[in-house]
Write a structure and sequence with these properties.
Length: 941
Amino acid sequence: MFPAITLYSESMDSGQATYNYRYDANLAEEIELKWQARWEQAGTYHAPNPSGSLADSTGRIDLPKLFIMDMFPYPSGTGLHVGHPLGFIGTDVYARFKRMSGYNVLHTMGYDAFGLPAEEHARQTGQHPRENTDANINNMRKQLKRLGLGHDPRRSISTTDLDYYKWTQWIFLQLFNSWYDSELNQARPIKELETKLENGSITLKENISWAACSDQRKKEIINSFRLAYLAEAPVNWCPALGTVLANEEVTVDGRSERGNHPVYRRPLKQWMMRITAYADRLLEDLESLDWTEAIKSMQRNWIGKSEGAVINFTAEDSTVPVFTTRPDTIFGATYLVLAPEHPLVDSLYQTDWPEDVDSRWTGGYKNPPSAIEAYRIQSNQKSDLDRQENKDKTGVFLGSYAKVPVTGEEIPIFISDYVLMGYGTGAIMAVPGQDERDWEFAEVFGLDIIRTVQPPTDWDGKAYVGDGPAINSDFLDGLPIKEAKRAIIQWLEDNSGGRRQTSYKLRDWLFSRQRYWGEPFPIVYDKDGLPNAVPEEVLPVELPELIDWAPRSLDENSDPEPPLGRAEGWTTTTLDLGNGPQEYIRELNTMPQWAGSCWYYLRYLDPLNSEEFVSEDIEKYWMSGETGGVDLYVGGVEHAVLHLLYSRFWHKVLFDLGYVTTPEPFQRLFNQGYIQAAAYQDERGMYVEAVDVSKVEKKFFYQEKEVQRSFGKMGKSLKNSVTPDEMYEEYGADTLRLYEMFMGPLDQDRPWETKSVIGSQRLIQRVWRNLVNEETGELTITDSEPEESLNRLLHQTIDSVSNDMNNLRFNTAIARITELNNEITKLESPTPRSIAEPLVLLLAPLTPHIAEELWEKLGYENSVVYARFPTPDKKLLIEDEAEIPIQVNGKVKSKIKIDSNATDETLREVALADEKIKSLLALNEPKKVIVVSGKLVNIVI
RNA sequence: GCCCGGGUGGCGGAAUCGGCAGACGCGGGGGAUUCAAAAUCCCUUUCCCUUCGGGGAGUGCGGGUUCAAGUCCCGCCCCGGGCACCA
């Protein structure tokens, strides 16, 4: 009836050992919970600040500092799977290693909790986003705590905390109250602009006189300079989500990244961030950062700087500026192309076609106006996806001609959707000889093609984009591209035909969202409809409680409708902005999710400060460094552009205004890989639960039917999630940590294999068994000294593990520890204390719980967290006897053991005297003998 | 098309400086222990051939440099990611 008990007593009777203290999942859990509770109680991971409420008397503040950070997560409702914490474990191991190496380490974790998913969830469940968000955060905190991550819990923030978003709003106000002084090349307070306008040291464009402007006009002009400004701009309107989206949030095929809904372009008045003012600095400062080349090149690509010229073509009574990176090819310009929506089109077209018009140019319409109208409709309806897939050149002739500045020649003007309004000037000079797209268009429309760069003699292609001497180009003839560019730009500038110009792909950052669950803007509108900053004392502008917070799902033609507009009693407020209490209308949009993640690393430093977003000396302490900023920032590659670019931008603004001391926020960036897992599809292509799939021979079966295996990111949609909880249940947190670190290098994607986790548990189990009696739980170590060979191995292990940990190569660090432990396992006698103690210390960063437990058993009262990581005895790193391979013609044929200090000459002699080598050489004299000191001998015959 | 990564046993990976390819782990095979099994411990495990001494091949493919190449050079192929009519 009670088989478990019966069996137990049976084994007792038969005198079998009972391993009550074997390291298994139960014991692991007992140990892990015990230490997690102790750490929390003792505040083990509290990192002291130099001042303020987080200062302490541990003395750690005098150590060199290290700021280690993870990209903070969105607290999702579905909980974690084993793929999520990979990076968190990596930073934790590194942070622990550095703590043990004598650093004051700041490591904590926050939550990026505003954003769409909480609202989507709220819409589905009727639960307020805040409740749902808080519940998710609590759940995630619990899950992460169970992993034994050494975070300073006092510094954990959520972007949705009132105390936090108050300062997000405050930073917004700094942007609102600043402008970019291009002479100083930095952001300055807007007051300085006013002074400069007053005293005339800055003059306005188009000869507008500042003095003659009305107060209202002055305000408008000032507003147009702000780093946060309102602009009527074409936006990405997503009716299904009920919000506009940033360019970065729209996929290449014109759909929302979240939800894959259609997105439409339409003009709307929106908050913008003048990130373009920082384009050059964002580009140049990449050089100094310790980031991967891949991320840097993605940022460079996104900023998209290209140098060239704007050339003015004249047509009718207008000037058509075109941007080109190849002004040297101007003599080959045979037509102009404008984007279909280019504003100049309306003043350039003729009412009738010229008499001899080419029928290909008219689109079959009877006159230019009708052709243009039809073409605009056609290209408007084309989705971006169509544009991409179907690159056939289309367009229509405007009926008019433009004059090429340098030749005076008349060339036809077209509109075509291969020219984009959003880049350069929205107009190009087409040079088919040197541009593949122009060549295609010229072929379709029968336009002239003039080569202006001599292609190589064996060139049989079409447009030639390589270098070569200029031809057919008058005074440029014979010059290589670079010099020809310089010469023509000089000519253009001398003859008012154009000027040097740099163009960027980077656009200003659209900052408004028509959403509830985001930071409200600290902005109110006066009766003239102009925006005003809410005074700092009044911050935070708190989100109103709303019953109906869901965005309306709307159709293509409707206007975005911010949910905050429904907050009765909130949409207006009475403030005194210097001219007595007045009623103002609040800004109803909210900030995008990126806002909160732009500066959270600064709040970690000084989370309880109610006077400032971060205090000066604390910021200086934690952010200083060789080039400054967070010392190690680990996260996924998916934030390569958006978050990392926005954050760098805000940081530079704060730097310009003197609030932070470093020009960059993140000195070293490391991208962790993803954990993938096998996923299985049945014959309909549906994913089936991966846990229920079994392998027979080399095939996979689910409910007796064969299924196909593939690999993908772990998650709900592929039905291949494995949760940390399952791993705790079966192995414990230390094993999970160890396995995740052992699977491969941190920056690499790797497939999860639950069956392999056992290997990591075995390591801990063997270490435990080497130090502790499994029946009694007593220490089994001895105070006698180890064999010299074991001692050598220990010190070699310490040396390589230290190196590996410094370089985040935890997988090889674990391999070295395993080797050491395998040797200990082979000992006939108990483990010497002088080996056991460093072994525990080597493991402590990786498996902190078991290390604490063993450290305590070894008789230490203080936590292993602050024990010193062992350092190798240099003398023991050098073997006195080395095994030297001897090669014949580059292949290993023999090995000799020899004093490691042996001279090259001795090495050579001993190698040649080796029996095996002698027999291989027979009577031949070796042609050559190469001796690599202390490493190898190669004999050439 | 352009720009980044990457390709090593059955699997994850190691070899980061041009110097013993396959560390370490999973899986497999064999043995010890056990009534038996699990667990544990030991041996073995790149492939092919072998008279069991050993011999040969081998890091995506084809060339090259070198005494020596996974590593460097040239030309390809494949996989993953990013960008893409950006003038």
